[in-house]
Write a structure and sequence with these properties.
By secondary structure, the protein is an all-alpha fold. 79% of the residues lie in helices and 0% in strands. The longest helix is centred in the C-terminal third of the chain and has 33 residues, at 191-223.
């Protein structure tokens, strides 16, 4: 069994389901820009996984050389970051001392991501290429995870949107974890751990899409607004 091939096929299939569902839901007039960004993140994942699948089917591997598919994960995280930072954060945090505590709690997520980099990727027999790839992944995950955790722990505010998106932010954080595990597994050439982490990623990816739809639809019914 080619664990790497099946791992990428599963993630690609789940992301495709999420992309189709998100496209149907959000790519219509007067629909939330936030939802559009999450949907485009699904597309980034699909493209990245397709690069991996093509590489594997053409006789290549994912361990010894840099693969373009890695950029799909980075692209998706950039859109997750943009959605929270650009469309939501200014609504849920007015910058006053009221939410200072939650800003500090949010910093825990990037701190943990950065601290995990050292034992996972700077120890053992691992190539410089994988250390650089992991560092890039950790950098983008640190930026995005701050807002995911911050919005997960913040209390509901006047506009009510943060409450509806808490489940999405939880699954987004879990996706960050599974992505780091996959990177670690690939750097060590561990096919079974790669498969397991990709299976988790697939579940988290699809869950993110459905939790985004549910959260925004619930908020829209209550307020009648779009973001």
């Amino acid at each position: 069994m080619n664990y790497y091939l099946w791992a990428n096929i599963i993630v690609c299939a789940f992301a495709l389901c999420g992309f189709i569902r998100g496209g149907v839901e959000f790519f219509r007039p007067r629909k939330a820009m936030y939802g559009k960004m999450i949907t485009i993140a699904m597309l980034c994942i699909i493209i990245g996984r397709l690069f991996n699948i093509i590489r594997l089917l053409s006789g290549g591997n994912l361990n010894e050389h840099f693969q373009l598919g890695f950029l799909g994960i980075i692209g998706s995280i950039m859109f997750f970051f943009s959605a929270n930072y650009g469309a939501i954060d200014s609504i849920v945090d007015d910058g006053t001392k009221t939410f200072f505590k939650y800003r500090m709690i949010g910093l825990v997520a990037p701190a943990v991501v950065v601290l995990l980099y050292f034992p996972l990727f700077l120890t053992g027999d691992i190539s410089l290429r994988w250390r650089i790839q992991a560092a890039v992944l950790v950098l983008f995950e640190a930026l995005s995870s701050y807002f995911h955790l911050k919005h997960l722990v913040m209390p509901d505010v006047e506009f009510g949107v943060v409450k509806g998106l808490k489940p999405y932010n939880l699954f987004a954080l879990l996706y960050m974890v599974s992505s780091v595990i996959e990177c670690f597994a690939l750097s060590r050439g561990n096919a079974k751990l790669t498969f397991a982490s990709c299976l988790l990623s697939a579940i988290f990816i699809l869950s993110m899409m459905f939790m985004t739809i549910r959260g925004l639809n619930r908020w829209k019914k209550e307020r009648g607004w779009n973001i």
